From TrEMBL:
Record-linked Pfam families: Methyltransf_28 (PF02636)
One Gene Ontology term, aspect cellular component: mitochondrion
Name of the protein described by the UniProt record: Protein arginine methyltransferase NDUFAF7
SUPFAM superfamilies for this protein: S-adenosyl-L-methionine-dependent methyltransferases (SSF53335)
Gene designation: EOG090X06OK
GO molecular function: protein-arginine omega-N symmetric methyltransferase activity
Function: Arginine methyltransferase involved in the assembly or stability of mitochondrial NADH:ubiquinone oxidoreductase complex (complex I).
Amino acid sequence: MREVLTNPTAGYYMNRDVFGQTGDFITSPEISQMFGELIAVWLINEWTKCGRPTPFQITELGPGRGTLMADILRVFSKFKIAGSDFSVSLVEVSPYLGQVQEKQLCPSQAQEATEVPQGSQHYKQSISLYGSQVRWYNHIPELPRTFTLFLAHEFFDALPIHKLVKVDQGWREVLIDLNREDLTLRYVISRDRTPACLYRLDNESREELEVSPQSLIITQAMAARIHQDGGIALVIDYGHEGDKTDTFRGFKNHKLHDPLVDPGTADLTADVDFAALKWAATHPRGFEDWKANLTYGTVDQKDFLTRVGINLRLEQLLASCRDEDVARDLKSAHKMLTDPMEMGSKFKFLALYPSVMEKILERYPPPGFV
């Protein structure tokens, strides 16, 4: 899965724009500005609860085209949040998508090469439309040590998984094999236990499950940073609370696609195990002796967006709209984002806070989650 998605020369994400109507799938930020605007207001509200610490950064994991971050920065600018006290850090491994993000976020700088100082942790830098520094990184440990608003929208679903099944002899891993007769790929079950079978399976009642060690490592890295430097994380993805079994699939041209057919031409994905992420968020490596971070959620996307004001925002936009086609598109986007039969129930929201905010959150719970 990692090879198919991020191989430097032939990986699915590495050399093409896979988003939107002309790609293989569409995301919430691409549907309407309302999504990113409400996320921005939520982030500002929670940052304010923390005392508006500066300097601070907003970090997005896997920013796609940069559409969500563009909407967030526009809202931040309305609240006069820009300049030297605020920066943007993007964790992105695709050089192609990094260029797309730069054109989206830094239109006046995208044609000019900005030299990265020698010894820097980031591999690219620029200035956003609103004057904030934007830097690109490969991994979370490279990020500046400061208060951070982490954002991961449809990021974890693309991280590699291991598929495990319970047989008479115990747990075994489902592997990918080459059928030498016709040179097609096929699933096989390992003869013996593999390292993935060492996952926390002692009290597991399912006969089949998917585990993503990389997702746990990244979540632990976020949690450690939040504990050490202060911050908040918001994770948005489709997933479950540790009860689903077989969700590995491919998408091509907005339709389901066999993951083993023409690898590299379709998106590969699996539902996020939010129960596992919450475990990782409250058990960062190296901090076993401190009080655990706080997690809120998951809640459905329709509930989160409704509670933070998407209906009011739609009314405002419609009131100022003079084009019937635009008005119809706004209503359609609202329905797609909130209808339980569309994205409203498929996508979940999870928030992560440092334990020092427990008393504040008891008095002022995070909006969208209650």
